Automatic annotation (TrEMBL):
Keywords: Repeat
Source taxon at top rank: Eukaryota
Organism: Flemingia macrophylla
TM spans (from-to): none
Official protein name in the record: Pentatricopeptide repeat-containing protein
GO biological process: plant organ development
PPR repeats (start-end): 112-146, 213-247, 275-309, 377-411, 412-447
PROSITE patterns linked: PPR
Coiled-coil portions: none
Position of the signal peptide: none
Length: 498
């Protein structure tokens, strides 16, 4: 039987079929019903399909997004109109499939500025700055969204000089501003802990008349606080005509980060409304500043006030237990999670493993790790390797690394800092140099200052072993470790036009 041809226009009489589909609470159920529409010869209006794709992007529902794309092809949209193509590109980038996003872009008959910005921001958010740069310079027209995306992309990628260079260029063009136009350079100022740069940005915000913008003012408060200038952050905060929850929690996290919990507690008590986020920042502040018992006290108050904790809250609580080596409280929190059927996210599992290890129960930490079903997250392996390394179990840490590689998980720079420390603490000099070499040649990890510090520590433990290692070709020639090649970032404080 031939398949019914889809309707070219959406008829009001079709609403009785479509309404139940659109009212479904589950995105998966709604998308699964598209086949029924296709068989009845019905094609949903573009704005409805765009809404479904927007939900896929927001929830990173790759399977459902692919099914919508397939539905478009089967109903005659082999080359979707610009509106739908733009949403397809957003969906694919949100789900990390840049190759499919590029294919959709390549097949588009008509592209608008939103299309180009979509591709640019998609590559930038994935850290693919060479591709982002290529699209940026190919764009027939650019607006402030284009410039914002490329500057923020370089800032997040750690390429601060390039971010500042492009920001200076952006200021020369009359393409307008919005509150996010300053986000990239504020990120740079935070990463470099550069108060002067932050102050310059603040001045520019005042000049362009955005000082009353709550979002932007909160970003500057955050930047001042992270640069260690909590007094300046407080002055700006006090001058804000309107303060939202973000502004309050931003300043609170600043006090917590710099250990000023007395002012942090005072600010917390003044907050007109506390949510899970502000409670967690307050709790985490005590935990990070060696006041674990106070952190646990905050957690008890939070539960008493019927504020629902999230996985960041539990992670902070477990860190507090680890800091004061309180196995009793750590077990209570672990039991609370299990008894209340709270989903254990990777961040919480890592905190549980770290807590047991710090409290001297390494076997329990290992059992928790073994019980994890999905071990595809590198941070999980790094946590377990670090736990073994810090307690002198070098051979076991190396075995854990081997299991990690067998599981198909790619080690990163943190993995090798942990494993090199394990070798150093356990006196495994030959293994340490072998792993340092394989880190570069086999795994493509560029050594950073922490790796070189581990290497120096290993060299301090060589003794008469060094001759045997050289004869085996294990130790690389130290003259090849050019200090100029270590990826330090120079500090740039002036963003004024040259």
């Amino acid at each position: 039987m031939p398949m019914p041809m889809p309707s070219r226009t959406f008829k009001p009489s079709n609403l009785c079929i479509v309404k139940p589909i659109l009212s479904k609470s589950s995105l998966s159920d709604a998308v699964s019903s598209l086949d029924l529409l296709r068989l009845k010869g019905i094609r949903l209006p573009s704005h409805v399909l765009a809404t479904l794709l927007r939900h896929c992007s927001k929830t990173r529902s790759y399977r459902e997004g692919k099914l919508i794309h397939l539905h478009l092809k089967l109903t005659g949209f082999k080359r979707p109109p610009t509106l739908l193509a733009n949403h397809l590109i957003s969906m694919y980038f949100s789900c990390g499939d840049f190759a499919q996003a590029r294919k959709v872009f390549g097949k588009m008959e008509s592209r608008n500025l939103f299309t180009w910005n979509n591709m640019l921001s998609g590559y930038a958010k994935l850290g693919m700055m060479e591709q982002a740069r290529s699209f940026f310079y190919r764009m027939p027209h650019k607006d402030y969204v284009s410039w914002n995306s490329i500057v923020v992309g370089y800032a997040h990628s750690g390429r601060f000089s390039e971010a500042l260079r492009l920001y200076r260029q952006f200021r020369r063009f009359d393409v307008g501003y919005n509150q996010f136009s300053f986000a990239g350079v504020l990120i740079v100022s935070v990463k470099l802990k550069d108060f002067e740069l932050c102050s310059q940005i603040h001045g520019q915000v005042l000049v362009v008349g955005f000082s009353s913008n709550v979002v932007l003012s909160s970003l500057i408060v955050d930047a001042y606080a992270k640069c260690g200038k909590t007094d300046d952050a407080r002055r700006l905060f006090d001058d804000m005509p309107v303060k939202d929850v973000r502004a309050w929690t931003t300043l609170l996290s600043g006090y917590a980060a710099w250990g000023d919990m007395e002012l942090g507690a005072e600010l917390f008590s003044q907050m007109p409304k506390n949510n899970s986020c502000s409670w967690t920042y307050f709790l985490r502040g005590y935990a990070r500043n060696g006041m674990g018992h106070k952190a646990l006290g905050v957690f008890r108050e939070m539960i008493k006030h019927q504020v629902r904790p999230d996985h960041f809250t539990f992670s902070a609580c477990l860190s507090a237990c680890a800091n004061i080596a309180s196995l009793k409280h750590g077990k209570q929190i672990h039991s609370f999670l299990v008894q209340n059927n709270i989903k254990l996210t990777t961040i919480v599992v890592c905190a549980i493993i770290d807590m047991y290890a710090e409290c001297g129960s390494l076997e329990t930490a290992k059992r928790v790790f073994d019980l994890v079903g999905n071990k595809q997250y590198v941070v999980l392996w790094n946590t377990m390797i670090s736990a073994l390394a810090q307690r002198g179990y070098g051979i076991e840490a190396i075995m854990m690394l081997n299991n990690m590689l067998k599981s198909g998980v790619k080690p990163n720079n943190v993995t090798f800092v942990a494993i090199l420390n394990a070798c150093s603490h356990s006196g495994l000099v030959e293994e340490g140099f072998r792993l340092f070499k394989s880190m570069i040649t086999e795994h493509g990890v560029v050594p950073n200052p922490e790796h070189y510090a581990c290497l120096t520590d290993l060299l301090g433990r060589t003794g008469d072993v060094i001759g045997r290692q050289k004869s085996k070709g294990v130790i690389c020639d130290l003259s090849t470790l050019n200090i100029q090649e270590i990826p330090f970032q120079s500090k740039i404080v002036n963003i004024q036009d040259k």
